[in-house]
Amino acid sequence: MEISYIENIVHNEGETNEYSTRNKFTGEFEDVVHDDLKEAFAGLVHHFAIICEQIQLIEGTELKDYTEILEDYKVTAMSLGGKPGAEGVVITGQRILTSGMVLQLNTPFILFESEGGYKQSEELLAACKKVVTEVREYLNGKQGDHQLDLEFATDDKETS
């Protein structure tokens, strides 16, 4: 698994003195991903499908009504950005088409706080924070269960 984690921090010192610092980490990991990280990314799937206008929520329905449809979607990345007071996210993912081909999609940049913007922006922000928390924990060593390959010695002698 390749993980890129980039965090831009904008610092304000007065009205005219603004600068930013950047924390960047990219690496290849062979560690097994913990179920909590998988679930955190899965928590973005319905937002991804709605924002990309792949599904429409019908009034009076709940997300559980879309479970079968959402099985064809997977979120593969998210990118947080913006500046203080105008933070948002771009979500990258895919949809498996009935032909078996994969459709790659990116959402537009969605502001977390915007008048008339995405109606579920508070839930989206919470889901993004959960992903960030789980990625940080993964980078700090939280892993899923490892499956061990056991080799058994064989006795070539036949038993009588």
Description:
This protein has 160 residues and is an alpha+beta fold. It has a domain at 32-139. Helices cover 24% and strands 33% of the residues. The protein has four helices and six strands. The protein has helices at 35-42, 45-51, 67-70, 121-139, and strands at 2-13, 17-28, 73-83, 86-96, 102-106, 110-111. Strands 3, 4, 5 and 6 form a four-stranded antiparallel sheet that branches. A hairpin with a 5-residue loop joins strand 4 (86-96) and strand 5 (102-106). The longest helix is centred in the C-terminal third of the chain and has 19 residues, at 121-139. It is globular and about 55 Å long. The model has no long low-confidence stretch (mean pLDDT 79).
Number of helices: 4
Helix content: 10-25%
End-to-end gap:
50 Å
How do the helices and strands follow one another from N- to C-terminus?
A: EEHHHEEEEH
Approximate strand percentage: 25-35%
- Overall, the morphology is globular
Number of DSSP strand runs:
6
Please compute the radius of gyration using only Cα atoms: 21 Å
How would you characterize the largest beta sheet? 4 strands, antiparallel
Whole-number mean pLDDT: 79
| Unreliable segments of 5+ consecutive residues | none
Structural class: alpha+beta
List the helices and strands and how they pair.
Elements: E1 2-13, E2 17-28, H1 35-42, H2 45-51, H3 67-70, E3 73-83, E4 86-96, E5 102-106, E6 110-111, H4 121-139
Antiparallel strand pairs: 1-2, 3-4, 4-5, 4-6
Annotation keywords:
alpha+beta, 4-stranded antiparallel β-sheet, two-stranded antiparallel sheet
